[in-house]
Each structure stands twice: as C-alpha cells, then as structure tokens.
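R.M. (postdoc): so does anyone remember the format we settled on? I'll just put the structure tokens first.
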C-alpha cells in the first residue's frame, strides 16, 4: 500500500487518525526540524534481521530513545542482529529507506516480520506517530489501533520495555 491506500484503508476500517504533511524526512534529526502536534508520540523504527537472515524484526521506540541491539537480543532471545539491507526492506515490506514504518508490515504478505513495540507508547496520550509508507507525512493514531491492525494482518506483535 502506498500513502493514499493507507489513508483509504484506515478510513474503511473507521480508524481515527490525524495527518501531518511535511517535507521528506529520513531520520529523527530531520523530523525534529518539522513542527508536529505530538512530539512525544514520534516513533523511531529500526528494521533488523538475524545473522542467518531468517528472522526479521521491526523495532519501534519513542523518537528520543536509543536501541542497544545486543541488549535487545539478550532480552528477546534472538540471534545476533544487524540492520536489514535496502533490498530486504523492499522485499519484505515494500518500503524505501527513510520510510520505515509499522504500517509497512501490512505489505508483508509472508507475515515474516515480527513487530516489537515499546510499551511506552501505551502510556498517555496513547498515540503513536508513524509514516503512511512514505516519509512525506506522519499519521498520529491510537497505539492500540496500530497493534490491532498488525495482529489482524497476522504478524507477531510483542509489547516490550525498551529503555
């Protein structure tokens, strides 16, 4: 799904969301230059794979957090992790670098990407800001709605504490 198809999908599901259109942003530093209504709900997304290229994970944390992949591995029982390639990102979620988002999991026909979401997004205000499969906008939606969409799609969802 592209950006417009994501909007239509959310509308058809009667999911409330708000959109902030902005220039293309490729990282959290660039996003910090954009005025957004809910900066505390900004999401940073890491698409990683294990060393055998068998398991793929999307890790979503609040934008100001850092993810230690070695600690993540220990806490979640994975093999050694590294960032997935541009080709793997395109193949698994049909996304381009800079546009990594949990909504890309809806393009994962094989249901091979496991989603790890920082539990902090469940606290007040209960919102998460993610790209609509393109990095020229941010969708603000209820975290629970995002989790439900991904679970209904058939991908594994893990709610975890990420410091």
């Amino acid at each position: 799904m592209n950006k417009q198809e994501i909007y239509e999908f959310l509308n058809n599901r009667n999911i409330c969301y708000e959109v902030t259109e902005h220039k293309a942003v490729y990282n959290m530093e660039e996003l910090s230059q954009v005025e957004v209504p809910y900066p505390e709900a900004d999401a940073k997304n890491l698409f990683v794979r294990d060393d055998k290229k068998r398991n793929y994970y999307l890790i979503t944390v609040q934008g100001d957090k850092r993810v230690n992949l070695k600690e993540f591995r220990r806490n979640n029982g994975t093999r050694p992790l590294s960032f997935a390639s541009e080709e793997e990102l395109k193949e698994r979620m049909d996304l381009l670098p800079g546009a990594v988002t949990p909504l890309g999991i809806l393009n994962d026909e094989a249901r091979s990407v496991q989603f790890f979401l920082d539990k902090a997004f469940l606290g007040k205000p209960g919102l998460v800001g993610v790209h609509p499969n393109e990095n020229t906008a941010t969708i603000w939606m209820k975290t629970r709605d995002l989790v439900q969409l991904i679970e209904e799609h058939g991908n594994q969802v893990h709610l975890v504490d990420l410091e």
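R.M.: ...and that's the designed sequence above, right after the tokens. Also worth knowing: The beta strands are 17-21, 43-50, 56-62, 81-83, 113-118, 127-130, 137-142, 157-160. Helices lie at 3-12, 28-31, 69-76, 86-93, 143-153.
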